[in-house]
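hey so i finally got around to running both of the ones u sent me last week. sorry it took forever, my laptop kept dying halfway thru and i had to restart like 3 times lol. anyway pasting them below in the order u listed, first the sequence line then the structure token line for each. didnt double check formatting much so if smth looks off just lmk and ill redo it

first one:
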Amino acid sequence: MLDLSFSATTLPRTKGNLGVDWDRNAWGAGLFGNYLGRVANYNNDAWTQPTWRFNAGTRYDVNDHLRLSLSVNNLLDKMPPKDATWANYPYYDTSWFDSAWAAATTCS
């Protein structure tokens, strides 16, 4: 058993974000990484592995009032680390691992 409080084992102690943007004339792109530190497994006797999730996007400014964009969340379609001590893989919130893409038009 890990000798820690409940919140110290179920909430990651470390989280982080890292991003880079690029712009050239009417085009732009970005790559963003989200880091989630380790959390205790369900049995509270070991740690899961920390993990990264990457998102990317691109955009094109048609004119001063119209922008087209495309973004992809969870670019590498990476799933959270497995916890063999819990049958309902995994037992913690995994919403930030969902893969998705979106297209948008912005008009001002």
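and the second one:
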Amino acid sequence: MPATWGAQTACLDIRMPGRDGIRVAQALCGAEAANPIPVLVLTIFALDEYIFGALEAGVSGFLLKDADAEQIVDAVRSVSQGQGTIDSSLTRRVIREFAQRRRLHPVTPDRADTVLTAREIEILLLLARGMSNDDIASELHVEVSTVKSHLARMLPRIGVRSRLQAVVWAYQNRVVRVADEEEPAPASKDAKP
């Protein structure tokens, strides 16, 4: 839908005429979205089920409609640039919920494939090979913005803040493995028998 419109960012309400905003958000930016775009939810509803439902769907921002015009413009710009934004009145609730969930469900190697999508694991493996976003996009035949969207959603889920930390996490959690040290190195052409 947005690809045909050329949309780069979507701004949705939770309740829209004939549509469920969380389902629309999931279609636009969720793990299974073909060409995910950043989504900002702008709503009057500050209910936990809406806040966390939207965040779980993959939205990049959640803002209440009582925000002033400057805050809304800043939020749209922030989300468009791949950053996240949460209404300041909701931040404490989001942090508390996130901390509770992390205690209940820590990320472990055997849970990596339940925390990350197959595409995110694929991107993580390419990242571990030292590839840039451009290289990864080329390898996977997707847009660079798609790679960035996947990274933006993946990093918080594994509890890291940067690409480098993601690679370290991948090795520590055995998502990426170092080649067996017992394996002989390939012989060079100059080596003598």
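quick thing i noticed on the 2nd:
The chain has a mean pLDDT of 79.
anyway thats it, ttyl
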